[in-house]
Amino acid sequence: MNPGYDAYLNSEAWQHKRQQVLERDDWQCRCCDAISQGRYSIEDLQVHHRHYDNFGHEPLEDLTTLCPECHDAITAVHRRRRYRAQTLPDVCPEPTLSRSIEVTKYDTEVSDLSAHGACPDHPAQRTHRQSVRSVGQGSQSYLKQAFQDRC
């Protein structure tokens, strides 16, 4: 983890703030009844940062008491939102026909067309392949079809 984050969570200031939050929330997970159902003990309760905008100086309203299960679930949702992949457009831009195209061959003997640099907004995922031959200049219609199939 982050050394500054870990140091803060081990500090006396955090321990005092954590205690205040646990008392405010009556030593209960704010999402479920894990303590009253006997799934966790009071010692297992965790204090969750709703956000880190005021980290180190957070008001009590930025913190909430959770059991480990709810804390993991909420953290997973936050991480998915933060690190989700960007969606690609449904349609690639029109190909630039002046770029070179190679017919390549995969180890499994399946042929593929690879338009190097023809779709600049989409990074290529290169696999281990061996160049077979270059497509000639007279293959403009095949180039367009290959580009559409690729994107």
Tally of alpha and pi helices: 4
Query: What's the total count of β strands?
Result: 5
Helical content, roughly? Answer: 25-40%
Whole-number tally of structural domains = 2
What do we call the CATH topology of the largest domain? His-Me finger endonuclease fold
Largest sheet, spatial ordering of strands: 4-3-5
Architecture of the largest domain, according to CATH? 3-Layer(aba) Sandwich
Question: How many strands, which pairing sense, and closed or not: the largest β-sheet?
Answer: 3 strands, antiparallel
Please write the CATH class name of the largest domain: Alpha Beta
The sequence of SSEs as H and E is HHEEHEEEH
Q: Mean pLDDT, nearest integer?
A: 73
Q: Approximately what portion of the residues adopt beta-strand conformation?
A: 15-25%
Class inferred from helices and paired strands: alpha+beta
End-to-end gap: 39 Å
Overall outline: extended
Q: What is the radius of gyration?
A: 27 Å
Stretches where pLDDT is under 50 for at least 5 consecutive residues are 103-138
